[in-house]
Amino acid sequence: MGKIVDVKFIVKEYTYEKPFHIANSIAAGSTNVEVQVFVENGAIGYGEAAPSYRVNGERVETFPTLEAFVKEQLVGVDVRNYRRIFDIMDGLRSASSVKAAVQFAVLDAFSVETGVPVYQLFGGAKDEIETDKTVGIDTVENMATEARKIFESGFKTIKIKVGEDLKKDIQVMEAIAEVTRGANYIVDANTGYTPKEAIYFAKALYSRGIDISVFEQPVKAEDIEGLKFVRYNSPFPVAADESARTRYDVLRLIKHDAVDFVNIKLMKSGISDALAIVEMANTAKIQLMIGCMSESSVGINQSVQFALGTGAFVFHDLDSHLMLLEDSFRGKFVQKGPRMLA
Amino acid sequence: MGKIVDVKFIVKEYTYEKPFHIANSIAAGSTNVEVQVFVENGAIGYGEAAPSYRVNGERVETFPTLEAFVKEQLVGVDVRNYRRIFDIMDGLRSASSVKAAVQFAVLDAFSVETGVPVYQLFGGAKDEIETDKTVGIDTVENMATEARKIFESGFKTIKIKVGEDLKKDIQVMEAIAEVTRGANYIVDANTGYTPKEAIYFAKALYSRGIDISVFEQPVKAEDIEGLKFVRYNSPFPVAADESARTRYDVLRLIKHDAVDFVNIKLMKSGISDALAIVEMANTAKIQLMIGCMSESSVGINQSVQFALGTGAFVFHDLDSHLMLLEDSFRGKFVQKGPRMLA
To answer: For Mg(2+), which residues are the binding ones (chains A, B) (predicted)?
Structure first.
């Protein structure tokens, strides 16, 4: 039996190697909350909430105050009956990253109990995935240097943050393309463009012979018509990230034929909605990538297990733990450069 | 490790206690195929294919000839990596009940290996479900007698087969309602009505004060517009059964707002599509019931584990094993009258 006897929330402060700059947001580090689920037989499950005010509207200072509520809901429930806990946590819409952490910690405890790794509880679709690495917003020169460094260290896919300055963004892409021939590019505007700016940007790249694999969240989160407009007027696949937080968001995107790709992040959706989004996207033949907020290796482990287990993703953007300073690596997977192995 | 070393298909003949009559089809028994998956450590997983030519277009005489293909695909794959097997079996669109049996047998072997019951691999949402029991097409008098017998033996929900004779069907419902006050009714026309006949039928019941919980598949499988027309012109929830075989069928029903309910049957969808349909229906707020073809207790076990684990169903129509003659009960659940317990 695997009845839950205790739940603990532990606040953790992490610092980025260097400040991380995306469209209209700069972060020096991240305050995360580690969730530990204790089972009667001694098993402990680990999860991590890496909050995002910008995307989820959630505030990390509220998280410790939720420990008592979560504990009250979970104590006495068997981790093997994990869907009951998924359903309970679906109610915590004010803190989707806590929902994710608790749902995962329960699966992790179930995994420790049974000796089956979490990725095999999810189905064990893959033994290995490969992550991209991200170039934050900086000068044209620094971004090109950073991209070259990433490419030369073995990452085949480079994610590039744009969305603050259209003309400069085009120069950035030209400079990066020149020094990373053969790389795949995921370009993420983090809602920074208007629909017409986004199309201008995509056509400018196209006319310069620069191919991008995914054009992520070009426009505002709520602008579904805008996303669709960019999709139908851009030569590159368009992805929803900020527009695709819950299963309901994704059903709406499907009904509107608004996107080619969805970027699933456990911190937006939790495990429960992420599973639903995988099934819906597979059915609607929308491609998937998986991304992260500012998780440490504990939190990235959640997404690695999910991605290996479901095998659902064309691209993996799971690099926050490579950018945060950590005392030790705590993932239950093996990291070899861009490769992440079960 | 749980590598598959062998797969066996065994043809089994079952006879109904009495011939089972639904709209435009009478069956004296069923020829099913039991699937056994053998794992290197000695674990054996069991599944069962109960074919339906009428619904799936599949022919059971082809199934034994598929044993070699399935074996070739599965041998060497670890049952813990069950999604790989799900994906392989998704290709076998000519025999969806075989797909279901193989996918489940693999989960069953995984379950034996780890000591975790299959319903908990699915999430362990419920400890208990309750099935209805079905009244096949017969004379008005015999149907009322049968319904009363079912109700008096403790079944709270009665499924009634109609769809061959509109006027008589209304008389049947009047006669049954009289002798089973307080029962829930699922009325299944098995594609037997035109949209206007279906609406006539529903309004006739309504005007007589007879309430039905689900009005199942009133019109032809391909008539999605007809389903929607009945939905919007009938006081009762309308369900798709024959119209909802795959995940793609259900996405189309959702996009067209065509139904209130979907009847999932593993024999139509396999485990993989059934899981997708659960997620899509939950997202679109379409209600779910789970049904069966002519499974023995081995095959019904598949649906019981699925229903307990996902907890996704308002109604359970899992009674074929109660109507077939079997040497012994082989389900991995406890049957107590209408109750099915983990």
So the answer is: 188, 216, 241
Instruction: Report pLDDT for A340.
Output: 98
List pLDDT tens digits, range A59-115. Answer: 999 999 999 999 999 999 999 999 999 999 999 999 999 999 999 999 999 999 999
As annotated, the active-site residues of B are: 161, 265
> Which residue numbers of B have CB closer than 8 Å to A's CBs?
78, 80-84, 86-87, 114-116, 120-125, 247-248, 250-251, 254-255, 275-276, 279-280, 282-284, 309-311
Identify from B87, B107, B120, B306 which residue to disrupt to test chain A contact, counting A C-beta atoms within 10 A and taking the largest count: B120
Is residue B216 part of an annotated ligand binding site?
yes
Asked whether this chain's domains A4-116 and A121-341 adopt the same fold, the reply is: no
Residue A280 C-alpha from the chain's centroid:
18
Query: What distance in Å separates the CA atoms of residue B1 and residue A192, rounded to the nearest whole number?
Result: 49
CATH of A4-116, one of 3.30.390.10, 3.40.50.2300, 3.40.50.720, 3.40.50.970: 3.30.390.10
- Minimal C-alpha gap between A93 and chain B (Å): 15
Out of A80, A123, A125, closest to residue B124 by CB = A80
Is the pLDDT confidence value at A1 over 80?
A: no
**Residues of chain B found within 8 Å of residue A83, distances taken between Cβ atoms:** 122-125, 309-311
User: A142 has which bridge partners?
Assistant: none
Rg (CA), chain B: 20
How many Cβ atoms are within 10 Å of A276's Cβ, its own excluded? 24
A45-71 burial, b for 16+ CB within 10 Å, e for fewer?
A: bbbbbbbbebbbebebeebeebbeebb
Q: A5 with A22: CB under 8 angstroms?
A: no
Digit-coded pLDDT (tens) for A243-281: 999 999 999 999 999 999 999 999 999 999 999 999 999
Question: Is 0.90 exceeded by the ipTM?
Answer: yes
Q: Into which CATH architecture does domain B121-341 fall?
A: Alpha-Beta Barrel (3.20)
Helices A247-255 and B247-255 pack at an angle, to 10 degrees, of 80
Q: Does domain B4-115 have CATH number 3.30.1490.20?
A: no
HEC string of A92-133 equals CCCCHHHHHHHHHHHHHHHHHHHCCCHHHHCCCCCCEEEECE
Instruction: Find out whether B72 is annotated in a ligand binding site.
Output: no
**Contact status, residue A32 vs residue A50, Cβ threshold 8 Å:** yes
pLDDT at residue B24, rounded to an integer: 87
Contacts of residue B276 in chain A, CB cutoff 8 Å?
Answer: 279-280, 282-283
Cβ contact B238:B262 at 8 Å? no
Domain ranges of chain A: 4-116, 121-341
Residues of A in contact with B280 (CB under 8 A): 251, 276, 279-280, 283
**Other residues' Cβ atoms within 10 Å of the Cβ of residue B208:** 11
- Residue in A closest to B86 by C-alpha: A123
Measured CB to CB, residues of chain A less than 8 Å from chain B are: 78, 80-84, 86-87, 114-116, 120-125, 247-248, 250-251, 254-255, 275-276, 279-280, 282-284, 309-311
Can you read off the two tokens belonging to residue A281? 């996207």
pLDDT digits (tens, 9 = 90+) for B64-74: 999 999 999 99
Give the H or E element holding residue B18. Answer: strand B4-22
Q: Would the CB atoms of A124 and B81 count as touching at under 8 Å?
A: yes
pLDDT score of B129 more than 80: yes
pLDDT band at residue B258 using 50, 70 and 90 as cut-offs: very high
Cβ contacts of A78 on chain B, cutoff 8 Å: 124
What is the H or E stretch that residue B277 is in?
Answer: helix B266-284
